[in-house]
Write a structure and sequence with these properties.
The structure holds 2 protein chains of 2 kinds. Chain A is an all-alpha fold. Chain A is 77% helix and 0% strand. By secondary structure, chain B is mainly α. Chain B has 3 helices and no strands. The chains are: A mainly alpha, B mainly alpha.
Chain lengths: 328, 106
């Protein structure tokens, strides 16, 4: 029965991908990429990877679609017409695709217990994690403790991406000159969205509360800093979509936002340094408290908080800088 | 009693499936944007509500039923607003509904 669901979702995925390549209207393409992400989230749920599904639904279907649309408001909605097909590019794509498909023949079957991924360190983690870390959710214990370095690296990558976007897109001066002129139509457009505003007033607190739940329940169930961060950011972005960018900027001033971007990463790295100073290795949380598992709990809580703060503020400040630009 | 609940749930599920199918057909066949939007709204609200209530009857009085109730409340609150927002955005960007002019104005 589950195969039917799998096949249906994968068929939809292929159809949406073909539709995306065929479309020339970029607005429709952006919406279709959102649909694609939502289908991916469904597939992740079917595969029991609920935490990945959270992220995919919030980022892929929510935030990145909004970012695409914000970009489209600066450019045109039509793709540049391309008359003659590019045969060289087609050949390269076909060859690469063929090689990749050929490569999958050697991969172990899905769910094969003999696959290398289930034979290497996985059984070891599953065996010792309950006593060594003491966190019921093993994904969290692997991600935050055993693989703490990797996650620190990922957080640093997100931080760097945000810095790059801010460097490329920040033109505060030009915006200030224009905002006085363009503020009025913006406000009038928002007056019509009465129902949306009332609705969002009801839902945004729930979204933020759910984000906090995902953040602090990450030790026990699916969730953690990345998922919570994107859900939190989605709530803030929804607020600024409905109530206008200026109001959102009043609530979270850009200075505070940019400070928090760095703060999250520093909290993560600082936790590592703290364990270094308390007679442990870098990111060895057991040094943080008398009892080893208690120290692990404190460490995981802190670094998940750092990840959550960085991810949420990176997403929000990217959105602010994308939609803060006016067409020049 | 169990049998009644069982058949009631299947009746609700097929009702929901029928409404979803009708909504899908409407999106394909109706002539203009606003009527297609109306068809999509049927799928969103009534179709999914019937399916969810049918599933609630299937799962009995349990945690799953409580989750389904929450999903139902969420859908009932959000879907009409989404439909409304899309329709209003279309209206504001100047899309006029297709109106068949009535010839006998009596």
């Amino acid at each position: 029965m589950i195969h039917v669901v799998d096949m249906t979702l994968l068929a939809f995925l292929a159809l949406v991908a073909i539709a995306i390549t065929r479309m020339t209207n970029l607005f429709a393409t952006s919406v279709l990429t959102g649909v694609y992400s939502l289908l991916m989230a469904c597939i992740f749920t079917v595969l029991d990877a609920v935490d990945v599904a959270f992220t995919e639904a919030a980022v892929g279907a929510g935030i990145s679609t909004v970012l695409f649309l914000a970009t489209l408001s600066l450019t045109t909605q039509r793709e540049k017409p391309q008359r003659s097909p590019n045969w060289k590019a087609l050949c390269v794509a076909l060859l690469t695709g063929g090689a990749l498909v050929y490569g999958t023949f050697d991969m172990p079957h899905f769910g094969d217990p003999q696959a290398p991924v289930h034979q290497h360190v996985g059984p070891h983690y599953i065996g010792v994690s309950p006593t060594q870390i003491g966190v019921p959710n093993m994904v969290t214990s692997v991600l935050a403790s055993y693989r703490g370095y990797d996650t620190l690296g990922e957080t640093a990558v997100i931080f760097t991406a945000c810095m790059a976007v801010l460097l490329l897109l920040q033109h505060e001066k030009r915006r200030d000159e224009q905002s006085a002129v363009e503020e009025k139509p913006d406000k009038e457009a928002m007056e019509h969205a009465m129902i949306l505003r009332v609705q969002s007033k009801f839902f945004i607190p729930l979204i933020l509360l759910f984000g906090l739940y995902v953040q602090f329940h990450g030790d026990f169930g699916p969730g953690g800093g990345f998922q919570a961060g994107v859900i939190f950011a989605a709530g803030i972005i929804l607020y600024s979509l409905v109530n206008g960018l200026d109001k959102a900027r009043q609530i979270i001033p850009p200075n505070v936002l940019h400070g928090l971007v760095a703060f999250g990463l520093l909290l993560y790295a600082g936790t590592g340094l703290a364990s270094l100073f308390m007679d442990g290795n870098f990111l060895q949380y057991r040094a943080l408290a008398e009892e080893a598992t208690h120290g692990e709990h404190i460490g995981i809580l802190l670094i998940e908080l750092g990840v959550g703060v960085t991810v949420a503020t990176v997403m929000t400040s990217m959105f602010f800088s994308f939609s803060g630009r006016r067409r020049s | 009693m169990d049998l009644i609940v069982y058949y009631a749930s299947w009746a609700l599920l097929s009702c929901g499936a029928f409404l979803c199918a009708v909504g899908g057909l409407g999106i394909l066949r109706l002539p203009d944007f606003y009527s297609r939007q109306h068809a999509a709204g049927i799928t969103d609200t009534l179709g999914s509500a019937f399916v969810l209530i049918g599933l609630m009857l299937q799962s009995g009085f349990s945690l799953n039923a409580a989750k389904l109730v929450m999903i139902l409340i969420f859908l009932i609150l959000t879907s009409p607003v989404a439909t409304h927002a899309i329709a209003q955005a279309a209206r504001q960007s100047g899309l006029e509904p297709k109106v068949v002019a009535e010839e006998d104005e009596a």
